Structures are given as C-alpha cells and as structure tokens.
Amino acid sequence: MRCDILETPLDLEPLIAAVRGPERGALVTFVGYVRERADDGRLVEGLSYEAHRDLALAEMRAIGAEVAAKFEGALIAISHRTGALGLGEAAVAIAAASAHRAAAFDACEYAIDELKKRVPIWKKEHYLGGGGRWRENE
Amino acid sequence: MKIRIVPFARIREIVGAATLERVIPDGASAAALFEVLAREFPPLAELARSTRFVRGGAFVAADAELRDGDELGLLPPFGGG
Q: What does pTM read for this prediction?
C-alpha cells in the first residue's frame, strides 16, 4: 500500500495511479485543505503539522489492511503533509478504489476517520495577528 | 536507571527541548516517568491521562515497566487530517 508523509505539496494523481486497476471499477478521493477559520471562528493564517514518522506510516499501513478486510478488498493510498501550510493547501489526501462504489466510499471515509483517531500527527493553528494553539481531534 | 525522553508537539513545547534524560528508580513505569516530568513542568499535568507512550517503534501501555537505557516517546493527543 502506498502511504507517505511529505514536506512538499500533495498531489492526488500518484495516489489515484496507485489504487486504480482492472478489477476496481470505483474510485473515491478525499482531500483535506487548510481552512481560513478555526472551529471557534478565529481567522487562521496557516497550520503546521508534525508527525512521528515511523509510527504514523505503520499506522497508515494498518488502516490499509483493515480497509481491505472490511470493504471487499478495497485498496487505499494516503499522503499527509508536514511542516508549515498556508490557506488552501492540502494537508491530507486519500484515494480509495474498489470493485463497486459503496465499498470505495466506505473505505475512504473509514481511512480518514481512523487516520484522525490513530495516526500520530499533530496540528497547530497559527492565528492571524499572532498566537497559536495545538488542536486535538475529537 | 537512565531514560532518554523524546517529547512531541505540545509536550515538546512545554518542556522546551527535543530530548531529555532523566534518572528514575528501577522498575518505574512510563506513567511514573510522566509524573516526574509533570512535577518539573506543571502544564504537563493535564496531559497525564491522554498522553501515549512509544518505545522501540511501537505503542506501549502507561503501566509498561521501563528498562535502563530505554528511549521513550511522549505523544500528546493526535490532530492529523
């Protein structure tokens, strides 16, 4: 399974190429972008992400194995960005492919939900006008 | 015994260092080491229950017994995605 943690801008195309194939007729993608407002309404200048690289990649691979077992052999690929990101930049990208669309949608949703819960990556919001805060997932 | 500590994200900012070394009693657990650090850096106290521990590239339980020379990663709650 393809998974990466990158300091450079994310690109969906290699993820799509990694999961598409003659047996998989459905492909779903998800991209998470840096939003201009935090959940509390404050204006954001950018985000920074850091990861425990080895463990994050291992956890992404574990999610990939679970996806295949749960959703009709669906195949996923995940990229997560680290470092400083500006507004509108992609922080995470996922492609999921399966024989039929229901399993592909389910696989993609499962992958992003589990990534947010289990993969050791951290996000700090940097606010317009100064200040910042580490944000935890629910 | 001597433990090398590798704090991440918010924990690293609180302790102000990328790595630390502390000497703690033989047989102490990961949670006990965290308590020692939280006395030194009080803002860590609120992370005592939510921090996860990593040793040798794998998660370990808070009650895992540490060994001399261990390197222990301290991982605050995740925020990826």
A: 0.94
Interchain proximity A137–B77, CB inside 8 Å: yes
Instruction: Name the phi and psi angles at A105, rounded to 5.
Output: -60, -45
Residue B52 contacts by C-beta under 8 Å, 6 or more apart in sequence?
A: A120, B59, B75
Q: Tokens in use for A102? A: 């229901």
Domain boundaries, chain A: 3-135
Q: Which of A55, A118, A136 sits opposite B79 (nearest CB)?
A: A136
The verdict on a CB contact (< 8 Å) between B80 and A137 is yes
**CATH superfamily, domain at B2-75:** Beta-grasp domain (3.10.20.30)
Q: Is A24 helix (H, G, I), strand (E, B) or coil?
A: strand
ipTM value for the complex: 0.92
Over its length of 138 residues, how does chain A's per-residue pLDDT go in tens digits?
999 999 999 999 999 999 999 999 999 999 999 999 999 999 999 999 999 999 999 999 999 999 999 999 999 999 999 999 999 999 999 999 999 999 999 999 999 999 999 999 999 999 999 999 999 998
Alpha helix segments (H runs only) across chain A:
12-19, 53-70, 101-118
Beta bridge pairs of residue A76? A96
Around A18, how many Cα atoms within 13 Å sit in the side-chain half-sphere? 20
How far away is chain B from the Cα of A19, in angstroms, using its nearest Cα?
Answer: 20
Residue B42 φ/ψ, nearest 5 degrees: -55, -35
Please give the CATH topology (third level) of the domain spanning A3-135. Answer: Aldehyde Oxidoreductase; domain 3 (3.90.1170)
